[in-house]
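User: Hello, can you help with two protein structures?

Assistant: Certainly.
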Amino acid sequence: MAWLKLSDARAKEWRRFRRRTWAIIALCFSARGADAAFGLHIIEHAPSAAAQSGARCAANADRDPEHQHLQIKKGI
């Protein structure tokens, strides 16, 4: 399986990439935790998908009323 081996330089690049990626994830986790713990409201919280409805969706607001019959009816 020689084709799966990386050169030393490439392996070093991947290690650095993984280390930096986990550092960024840890930084984001810490920032969100501090925001929630101290009530800083720095990070805007998005509502869950279940809390969103089509009535408040901006995409539905632009639709022409005479084309309402072309929309798929939900729940049928």
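That covers the first. Now for the second protein you mentioned:
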Amino acid sequence: MKKHTGTFLYLIISTFLTISYPQTIQISEITNNAGALILEKGEGRIIAGYSRILHIIELTQFEVSIKFIENVISILPNTNGPFSVLIKATLIDVKHLYNNLQPRNIRSKRSINFLGSVIKLVTGNLDANDLQIINSNMENLKTTEENLVKQNNNQLKINTRFEDRINFINDQFRSQHNLLKELSLQNNYLLTEDEKISIIFNLYTLFDILNSIENAIVLAKLNIVSRFILTQKELEMIAQEIQSDGLNIQNLDDAYSYLSPTVFYRGSSLIICANIPRLIPTHFKKLSVEPLPYNNRTIKINYKNVLQHDSTIFAIRTNCEEHNDVTLCERKQLTDISNDQCESRLIQGQTGK
């Protein structure tokens, strides 16, 4: 048997994933390294922009609802009876939730004034440019037939789910108030069980809407999009957009993992926004760069993770989103080091200068 005169040193990297993924073993030769070990860590994609679904909630509509309820209570036949007590107690809870939704410190550091409309960011990553685009298109969105505006990589769509529900509830309260007003003209009038059920049902529906909005804000502060605000049709649209960019979705629930929330006030309106990332077509390799001794010295590596496609190399400066083996980065999280004479050359297997 022929004897090998050279000695080869190999570094074996094993990554143990969850039981739903197979174990992977990566073997890299480092004997003749140029000062760095390059490990492939999956795929990298760059976010070009966002499609946004806006849920606009006119807070003044809740004031109308509360006023209707107070009027209903004022003309109930027995203001101290069990039914009246239940209505009053529930109204207290409704008012508490409504007060929690009111903007605080509207002139805070996170407030921006656009042509007289004060916008206060509650949570999310919208910058002044994003907010200006949304603000300038708000009125156009309300008047377009599909509530949809497209602009480059950004797409804005209005969801009227909350508005439709609160308008329906107010119509119900208005009818109930008018009915009670007529009945109150009669002597010793009594509400039927159906009328009582209708009033309490609408009141509890109002409470549920407010509670769902408050929960959506709490979840948004944890960077989670509430499952209550999106319709089935919207989820299907979101899944299609994500898949059209080459990302894998097993079911509609998977779409939530790609979404990010934003909440802000615009005047008397509360807007809850679901942001859908749109990606540039290029598929990058995500690489991990580890320094190795070379000629008795170790080169300092400024960036431990990069995205590479041919000769184009972006260094990852801040943590990006991770989805299984795909990393999604915004352009502002990256630095172009394609022409760097040190790290880019090391990544391409050349000696740094």
